[in-house]
Batch of 2 targets.
Target 1
Amino acid sequence: MKFAVIVFPGSNCDVDMYHAIADELQEEVEYVWHDEENLDRFDAILLPGGFSYGDYLRSGAIARFSNVMKAVQKAADEGKPILGVCNGFQILLEAGLLPGAMRRNNSLKFICRPVSLKVENNETMFTSSYEQGEIITIPIAHGEGNYYCDEPTLKRLIENRQIVFRYYGENPNGSLSDIAGIVNEKGNVLGMMPHPERAVDVLLGSADGLKLFQSIVKYWRETHVITA
Amino acid sequence: MYKVKVYVTLRESVLDPQGTAVKGALHSLSYTEVQDVRIGKFMELVIEKSDRDIDKLVREMCEKLLANTVIEDYRYEIEEVVVQ
């Protein structure tokens, strides 16, 4: 299986993402510059965290108009797994691939620490290796992770089980309905503020993020590898 | 030539944590009359005249990029200026 890690000017979690795939998951992975127009050779697309275009205007607002985002849109339409983490999530929101928007954290502070998450839906291509309701520890690192959407949108998210991760125990940023990660209606685009790529090795505090990447590979094998 | 002033603020229905903090600071300076503070962005655009309708153009820019209408409202003022 071949992963793309999209690199924007100002991305800074791209190397962590690459490491998670290449060294921990041991799958093929390639960096892709934001100018690239074709992502057909990839099976899954990863939008890493960071501060694309310096977060000028709004987080993700400028990155969403880069060339590669047209190809990301195409991959999303084709049903390929798309994962946006942190700034990657913000870009997916700005691009309209996921509903809602991010506000500054309630505390107005940049928060960087491990948090507890609850797996709210383990029937997605990103979470099938987790138990339903499993509590996991994944670090967050953001100043704008306070998710917002209007009432009808929230109702839809709940009804369609699009809320995949919720903050558990304590809501660090004020996010609506404790939302930490959501998928689109089709279920192949996941945006989340916590960083699973920073939690792939017990030595570094937690390996709870690894199952997310393993779920993607599992999904891909089930749908693409022909068994005799 | 046009000079366009664009104001972007969080929607009334969206809590503005910066504005709330600044209101608190003004209250602690004894300006207790302050009822509400909303913090936003101010952008000044200089736009060349073309055959495209200026009002439509600015509105499009706001909708597409300058404001995120999920959480933000915008308004703008268009002023025609003479180039020296």
Target 2
Amino acid sequence: MSDAKRRIIILAALLVLATAGLVTSIMLGSVPVPPAEIWQYLSTNETTVNGEIIRNIRLPRALVALLVGINLALSGAILQAVMKNPLADPHIIGISSGAGLTGIFVMLLYPEAGRLVPLFAFVGAMAAAILIYVLAWKNGISPVRIILAGVAVSAFLGAGISAMLIFYSDRVHGALMWMIGGLSARSWPHVNLLLPYTVAGTLLAFLGARHINVLQLGDDLAKSLGLRVELTRLCLTALAALLAASAVSVVGLLGFVGLIVPHTARLMLGSDYRFLLPGAALLGAATVTFCDTFARTAFSGAELPVGIIMAALGAPFFLFLLRRDL
Amino acid sequence: MQLSAQNIGVVIGDKTILEQTTVSFAEGKCTAIIGRNGAGKSTLLKVLAHLLDGYTGEVRLDGQNTAQLPRKKLAQYIAVLPQHTAAPPDTTVAGLVDFGRFPYRSIFSKDTPKDKAATEAALTATGLTNLRHRQVGSLSGGERQRAFIAMALAQEPQILLLDEPTTYLDIAHQLEVMRIVRRIADEKHITVVMVLHDITHALLYADEIVVIKDGGVFAKGDPRTVLTPALIETVYGVQADTFTNAEGLSLILPRAIA
């Protein structure tokens, strides 16, 4: 079987998996709904209880999970190539520390403005990303300087986050859930917030796949092949920042997806970004939808934040893949 | 195409690497650049390849300043094999060579028959047609270097710049690479400029030699007349003997630090 054929089959399998994740997420819950009935509830507007649950609770939440999975996985995949570092993930460009600081600031000091948390988190994430980029700039940009500037800025902002958590320790619960990352009570407004970023981001990322491939050859070769390395790196970092910031602003500091999913996709599909990007997006969507369904339903009565489930299930799985391949 | 460097100056930090360096390279010939470590050989090559910002002077291609050419256009004329190359280990040889077509593609364009022909010709010229499906990570040092040369050839350049192409290779692979480079100049009439450490390689395979010393061109010409024990002693500070090989060619062997 040719290499391209094998990778297309894997992509098809991942598409099936992501679809299954979406459907499962809509089906399962305190009131199970068989797949056959889902379509019926979606296509009509009858105001039955089940119809309401499907249309206004489970479907939007499943879609948020799907979009967040896509955004974080693409962001991580892009950053790993741009930074030439396998440990690069959305955190290193300051997304989590920036979003964390402003998001938690609003949550703790102005709890009545809770609706604005996504907006502030987004602004914080982008501001931190820009700050890191500016600090790392010195006759151009080098991945090592970005990573070091990212670590320093994150540590600095992290101090602010910790200080706030200490000073307002009575109100920490909501902030804590947000820091772990969760999807509870996410609905249509969140879908609408995420969708433009996912659509535009995915499109741009796929268009840039060839450029990312060339970037992987190192700066000198990439330049001599006609790639404008600095510009490409700047655009791709901005793209990754937008994708991750939109996701984090909605679900909180969901780690893991941005780091582990791209690596898992790479182990399955190789380093050609024309295959790796769609693979990572689909796997990200599948991972978050399945894990969220599990987090909602596995422990009757209590709902765990999806971040915990994802790390607890995903890390061993990733280690298994890694050991098998080495 | 005529490649030349005019009054090139490079200062890195407070150290002058190149100063008022002017040199032109014979069209369709193979030129070797030699000199001591740190003399500025690789820097000169990087300037020629437009890989270095912040130099003074001009690099000209048929009289035109290359700094004014768009990068992609430049990549259609000049191909480079840097000293350090990287590629994801699971890239296939054919996939790597295909990157050489990047300068001819836009974001939306599809592969053309011309792309295919160019990559095939590059694989043939480097003897890699049978290894096309192999992953770069599984290649030997020599095969790997040939694959990167093939990528450069797929650019269909007029000029090929090589930075120490035989470093890290055993003598068999060195010979293989030097012969391919020689053939590229002879058969494809591509102007080759390469930085070399090995004086013997320069003697055996180059049409012209440029000796760099103290940030400038110290000597230039036919390697058989330029390379003498006296020059070696001045440039490298090494005393050398000459020997005549079986083909009657006079070779140089270092004997002692002067």
